[in-house]
Design goal:
The protein is mainly beta. The protein has one domain. Helix content is about 10%, strand content about 45%. It contains one helix and five strands; from the N terminus they run E-E-E-E-E-H. Strands 4-3-2-1-5 form a five-stranded antiparallel beta sheet, covered by helices on one side. Strand 3 and strand 4 form a beta hairpin. It comes from Streptomyces xiamenensis. This is C2H2-type domain-containing protein.
């Protein structure tokens, strides 16, 4: 993954679409790299496939909307448990 030496971390977020109300959780592998000019950059991956940053361009998988709130992991699961 990625074309330069770096390191990988993992991140998880909860998301809530403000357009359709859909909520979901997602885990990411985050590749920390350097661009050709030596500046730090990151690439996000889900299941080995590169995706856009969930922090700068979140997209709802239900309605393709971009009015998405990003929250710490576990928030959507907590709401689902509470509704039981």
């Amino acid at each position: 993954m990625g074309g330069a030496e770096g390191y990988t971390t993992h991140a998880a977020y909860s998301f809530a679409c403000l357009s359709c109300g859909y909520g979901w959780e997602q885990k990411f592998s985050v590749e920390h790299l350097r661009d050709p000019h030596g500046r730090p950059m990151v690439e996000y991956y889900v299941g080995g496939k590169q995706v856009r940053s969930p922090l700068t361009y979140p997209t709802c998988p239900n309605c393709d909307g971009h009015r998405v709130r990003v929250m710490r992991p576990g928030r959507v699961a907590a709401v689902r448990r509470a509704r039981g």
